Every structure is written in structure tokens, then in C-alpha cells.
């Protein structure tokens, strides 16, 4: 009978720890523990306590929920490259669209037109996932989309795992708090409070991770790069009309380049003509001098 009571008590203490590292306590200091064993049914055994622990562990396990009842959690990230006549003004419009959708701008950088550099703006925005499609459509309408990429990262398993670990720690803390109210000696109180501090620290850390993960899932992270049309990448013509436009622009560019070329070489031609004229005059003078000496 003593062995039976010992096993049952060990099962209760292990159940209170909820799978965490159990605190080595002196069971002689808990008067209510003996009373709990006395009040247990005669047929209650350590095996029954172990079975209850196994049921609790199964209920807390991440895989205990049905696959069809688990809500998928995805982190959405992407990049959007726009060209606009005034990138700085367009950046203000992008920020307004994001704010109107319930999102926020985590960072923003701008560069004005200085020393021949074209103006540019870059924003790192967070958009609620349920408003992502409509907000991106509104942003794309503010300029010309040069490139766009979106990617999804499934973090469902991480979310389920964190939720299960948090639930186990909360249950463990609750039971340790109950034991603390039953502690009869100072040594027992110190040991229980130490265990509580450890569990609470772990719980706070897991809650921080869970909150960060929830923020990443609830808000998509999009980088919006806005530049001037002058630096936009060249596109291949999509059809006959585009081909005509491209050919016309190429012809104009050729003539413009030719005019610039002749404008560059005109000063050199004038210099060469002047040097040739000087050389011709010198040669003519020498020829006259030579003729005069021959006549004399």
C-alpha cells in the first residue's frame, strides 16, 4: 500500500510539471499531498496517473488537432518596382494608400535630383494580408510597373508548435501556483518559486516569439522602389505598332546622335583647316625664296 501511495503521488507531481523538468521536492513537507492520496479511490494506482498524463500530453501535442481544422499561416513578402514622373510625390501617394488600408510604413528613404542623379524613393511597407490585393492594385496605378515579385512562406507548423508549448507552460504554471498555496515549509516555497520563475521566463520568451510571428503573418512586407522613367529598363516591342514606335525612336536617336557627332568634330575640323593653311603658307613662302635665289 505504501508503494501504491508513493507511485500515485509521483504521478501527481509529474502531471503538475506538464512534461517540463520536475522539481525535486520533499514530499514530507506537503501535508495536503498525503491528504490527497488518502482521498483518492482505493483502486487508484500509479499506472492510472501515468495514463492521465499520457492523455494530457496527447491533447497538448501539435498533431492532436485535425488537419482540416488548422488555419494556414503564411508570411507574405515581395518587391514592387515603379517608374513615375515625380518619385517623391508618388511616394507620398503610396504611403497614403498603405495607411488607408490599415497598414504602416516601417521605413522610407528618398534622394532628390542632385548632380545629375535622378530622384528616387524607397518604402518598406506593411499591408494587412486581407487588403493586400486591393492595396497593391491602387499602388500600381500610381505609376508604371517595371517588375513585381511576391513570395509566401508557410509557418503553420511553427505557429502550432508555439501554441502547444505555450499551453503546456501555462498549465504547468497554474499547477505550480496551486502547489505553492499548499507548501508547508520554507524550502518547499523556495523550490516552487524557483520553478515558477523558470517556467514564467520560458513562457514570456515563447509569447514574444508568437507575437512576432503573428505580426509577420497578419501584415505582408512589401518593398516599393520608385524611380524616374529615364532609368527604366528597355522593353522589347510587343507588336507591330510597338515595333513602329521603337523604330521611329531609334531613327530619331540616330539622327540626334549624328548631329551631336558633327557638332563635336566641327571645332576639330576648323583647327585642322587652320593648321593646314598655316603649313601651306609656310611652304609657299619657302618656294618663293628658293625661286628668287635661283634667278639671282
UniProtKB/TrEMBL annotation:
The chain crosses the membrane at residues 250-283. Residues 42-67 are annotated as: Disordered. Residues 57-67 have a biased composition (Polar residues). Residues 159-186 form a coiled coil. Residues 75-280 form the DUF4349 domain. Keywords: Coiled coil, Membrane, Signal, Transmembrane, Transmembrane helix. Residues 1-16 form the signal peptide. This is DUF4349-like protein.
Amino acid at each position: 500500500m505504501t508503494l501504491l501511495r508513493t507511485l500515485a503521488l509521483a504521478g501527481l507531481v509529474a502531471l503538475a510539471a506538464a512534461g517540463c523538468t520536475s522539481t525535486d521536492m520533499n514530499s514530507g513537507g506537503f501535508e495536503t499531498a498525503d491528504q490527497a492520496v488518502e482521498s483518492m479511490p482505493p483502486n487508484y494506482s500509479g499506472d492510472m496517473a501515468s495514463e492521465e498524463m499520457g492523455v494530457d500530453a496527447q491533447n497538448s501535442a501539435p498533431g492532436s488537432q485535425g488537419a482540416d481544422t488548422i488555419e494556414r499561416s503564411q508570411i507574405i513578402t515581395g518587391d514592387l518596382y515603379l517608374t513615375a514622373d515625380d518619385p517623391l510625390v508618388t511616394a507620398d501617394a503610396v504611403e497614403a494608400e498603405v495607411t488607408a488600408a490599415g497598414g504602416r510604413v516601417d521605413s522610407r528613404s528618398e534622394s532628390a535630383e542632385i548632380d545629375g542623379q535622378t530622384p528616387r524613393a524607397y518604402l518598406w511597407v506593411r499591408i494587412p494580408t486581407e487588403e493586400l490585393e486591393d492595396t497593391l492594385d491602387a499602388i500600381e496605378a500610381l505609376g508604371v510597373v517595371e517588375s513585381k515579385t511576391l513570395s509566401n512562406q508557410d509557418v503553420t507548423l511553427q505557429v502550432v508548435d508555439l501554441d502547444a508549448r505555450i499551453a503546456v507552460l501555462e498549465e504547468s504554471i497554474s499547477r505550480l501556483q496551486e502547489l505553492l498555496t499548499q507548501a508547508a515549509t520554507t524550502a518547499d516555497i523556495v523550490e516552487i518559486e524557483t520553478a515558477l520563475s523558470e517556467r514564467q521566463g520560458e513562457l514570456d520568451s515563447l509569447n514574444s516569439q508568437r507575437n512576432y510571428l503573428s505580426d509577420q503573418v497578419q501584415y505582408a512586407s512589401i518593398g516599393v522602389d520608385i524611380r524616374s522613367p529615364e532609368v527604366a529598363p528597355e522593353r522589347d516591342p510587343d507588336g507591330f505598332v510597338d515595333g513602329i514606335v521603337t523604330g521611329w525612336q531609334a531613327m530619331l536617336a540616330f539622327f540626334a546622335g549624328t548631329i551631336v557627332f558633327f557638332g563635336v568634330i566641327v571645332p576639330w575640323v576648323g583647327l585642322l583647316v587652320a593648321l593646314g593653311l598655316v603649313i601651306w603658307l609656310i611652304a609657299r613662302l619657302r618656294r618663293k625664296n628658293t625661286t628668287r635665289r635661283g634667278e639671282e
